[in-house]
Amino acid sequence: MQLDDLDFADDLALLSQTQQQMQEKTNSVAAASAAVGLNIHKGKSKVLRYNTACTNPITIDGEDLEDVKSFTYLGSIIDEHGGSDADVKARIGKARAAYLQLRNIWNSKHLSTNTKVRIFNANVKTVLLYGAETWRTTKAIIQKIQVFINNCLRKMLQIR
Fold it and tell me: What is the number of other CB atoms lying within 10 angstroms of the CB of residue 84?
């Protein structure tokens, strides 16, 4: 089975084997969109090339689309290497920000450890693991995730 595109609401990622096929798909989407009164935002439209030497531009209405090394699709980072490292790094950063926003809760003497762990699972782990189903999980990625979780729990439980 071959995946041709990723569609969700107004987010679309076209996939193809060749530059010509990508240009044809892009033209087809542009024509279908115009036929129903929709405009494609060319500034938000990007081209990510994977494992190709071809550098011919992909265009919409004669305007070249920007080539990028990575893009975000439904909150997950897709990069030219096909790995999950960039997405995991971004998720850890967002989870760290969520953890730090709840600093008063972690320092509270009035909340039980059980309550703090439940709050952590609901508000930090969910941010951390968003999109994890699509990650290419390697031992290194699992270790990064586990180190982050362990560090948070150690700080929360005041274990040095």
Answer: 21
Residues linked to residue 72 through DSSP beta bridges, in sequence order: 77
Q: Report the alpha-carbon distance of residue 69 to residue 47 in Å, rounded.
A: 9
Q: What is the largest CA-CA distance in the chain?
A: 64
**3-state DSSP helix/strand/coil % of the chain, to nearest 5:** 50, 15, 35
Q: Which of 150, 38, 35 is nearest to 92 (CA)?
A: 150
| CA 56, chain centre distance (Å) | 26
Distance CA 8, CA 6 (A): 7
Residues 7-56: tens digit of each pLDDT: 888 888 888 888 999 999 999 999 999 999 999 999 989 999 888 888 89
Question: Residue 160, class by beta-carbon neighbours within 10 Å (0-12 exposed, 13-18 middle, 19+ buried)?
Answer: exposed
CA atoms within 13 A on the CB side of 129: 11
